[in-house]
């Protein structure tokens, strides 16, 4: 994939929108609701979390940084 400033901006906008949706849902849960489940997380951060969710089979998309270092 060709890297560009536009692609960087679109990726940042996507992550910010997912974050906004998560917090909006988290704040809208009524206090008298019988079902006290926490809001479903829409994104995860970290290679270990990605590996865990990949093995569980519940990933839709993975975004990797272009400047990752081999450890």
Can you describe this structure in just a few lines?
The chain is mostly helical and 71 residues long. The protein has helices at residues 5-27, 47-56.
Helix/strand class: mainly alpha
Name the helix and strand elements from N-terminus to C-terminus, one letter apiece: HH
Largest sheet, strands/sense/barrel = none
Poorly predicted runs are none
- Hey, roughly how much beta strand do the residues contain? under 5%
Look at the structure and give the mean pLDDT. 81
**What separation lies between the terminal Cα atoms?**
24 Å
**Structural shape:** flat
Helix fraction bin: 40-55%
Number of helices: 2
Tell how many strands the DSSP assignment holds: 0
Radius of gyration: 16 Å
Please, could you describe this protein's structure?
This protein is mainly alpha-helical and 71 residues long. The chain has one domain. Helix content is 46%, strand content 0%. It is built from two helices and no strands. The mean pLDDT is 81.
Write the layout of secondary structure elements.
Blueprint: H1 5-27, H2 47-56
Describe the structure using short key phrases.
71 residues
């Amino acid at each position: 994939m060709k890297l560009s400033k536009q692609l960087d901006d679109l990726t940042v906008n996507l992550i910010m929108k997912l974050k906004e949706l998560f917090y909006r849902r988290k704040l809208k849960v009524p206090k008298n609701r019988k079902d006290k489940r926490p809001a479903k997380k829409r994104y995860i951060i970290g290679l270990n979390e990605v590996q865990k969710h990949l093995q569980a089979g519940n990933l839709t998309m993975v975004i990797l940084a272009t400047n990752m270092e081999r450890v």
